[in-house]
UniProtKB/TrEMBL annotation:
The lineage of its organism: Bacteria, Pseudomonadati, Pseudomonadota, Alphaproteobacteria, Rhodobacterales. Keywords: Hydrolase, Pyrimidine biosynthesis, Zinc. PANTHER family: ALLANTOINASE. InterPro entries: Amidohydro_3, DHOase, DHOase/Allantoinase_Hydrolase, DHOase_cat, Metal-dep_hydrolase_composite, Metal_Hydrolase. It comes from the Bacteria. GO terms for biological process: purine nucleobase catabolic process; pyrimidine nucleotide biosynthetic process. This is Dihydroorotase. GO terms for molecular function: allantoinase activity; dihydroorotase activity; metal ion binding. Its EC number is 3.5.2.3. Residues 341-418 form the Amidohydrolase domain. Residues 50-233 form the Dihydroorotase catalytic domain. Pfam families: Amidohydro_3 (PF07969), DHOase (PF12890).
Amino acid sequence: MQDIIITNARLIDPELGESTGSLFIRNGLISDAFDADENTQVIDAGGLCLAPGIIDIGVKVGEPGERHKESFTSAGRAAAAGGVTTIVTRPDTDPVIDTPEILEFVARRASAVAQVRVLPMATLTKGREGREMTEIGFLQDAGAVAFTDADHVITNTRVYSRALTYAKSLGALVIAHVQDPGLSVGAAATSSAFASLRGIPAVSPMAERMGLDRDIALLEMTGARLHIDQITTARALPALRRAKENGLDITAGISVHHLTLNDLDVADYRTFFKMTPPLRAEEDRLAAIAAVAEGLIDIICSMHTPQDEESKRLPFEVAASGAVGLETLLPASLRLFHAGHLSLVQLFRALALNPAKRLGLDSGRLRIGAPADLVMFDPDAPFVLDRFSLESKSKNTPFDGARLQGRVIGTWVGGTRIFGGNPDA
């Protein structure tokens, strides 16, 4: 593998901070050896930002069963175009990933066609039905990096506590979706006067707090490792803070959509803005941003959920939830930087370093010996997003027609450039 030197770069190191300098790549790893020769490829970054590649937890890919929505090939291209070098895929496929055989098929398929690293998750209960836990040990041996029923809440606390206890014995990470299912069923918006005026069935923000309180109690009882896929309300943050202060092994994430959009964005009944959980009030959005800034919320993700036109072009309350986000994760996140809420270092702690730490990966940093999974980007480059230009098969993005700042110039995985046509750009 050819040695590479990237010079004149604005280095965004989530561990050491921001600096200007060069980065050397040898054998697919970040190296401190600068013994360049005539065979070394020299790339002048021209003052552009160079950061660890994004690690995106909670990506939905349609294989198996729904390749028309997203395949590993299209998801890999979309991730590369968005500076995402590792995708952690959800198991809520058709069929669900609840056996080693299905998991191994997915892993082989992803390895064969995806340009980026793919780490699959498996379900915590069989069929995501919440009645019987999966064979966590066998699935872990087959390559599952975490266990989750995605947006299905396990209502049987006995089953859930047993699964957490067993996961604890194996050191397995469990990812939970915290919503009270009784309150949340059928809801398409967050309770407010606005939702009432629009006639949209809504759910109280307390549904998230109630779900989190239950999961924290079970976590305290079992001592497991737990990651909350999304914390989106101000009312849930004190409970999360207490759990961390009490020494529980808990982390939390949030989607970029909940950090950059609010419940008023559904005013025109545009179903591309329908999410799970629903978009929140502006006060919740600002509280969540502050929580990311201080590290209370650890991870920013895309919660990439491709949906076809037929499932989105329906009345708002019955349309499918979710949005694609692999290509828009970085430019949408940069809204927080340009607004002065987060520095680039803080941003990449949440996008790269913290996901790597939670999953036990060596990537997500610019440390010597780390994999050369990198993204080079211009944080100030403006553009208007056209959803039909996205690499994803599905085009359900709420940012269609939005003015964004921040273009990916190059993406590397293991020292190999997978995006960016001009090697000297």
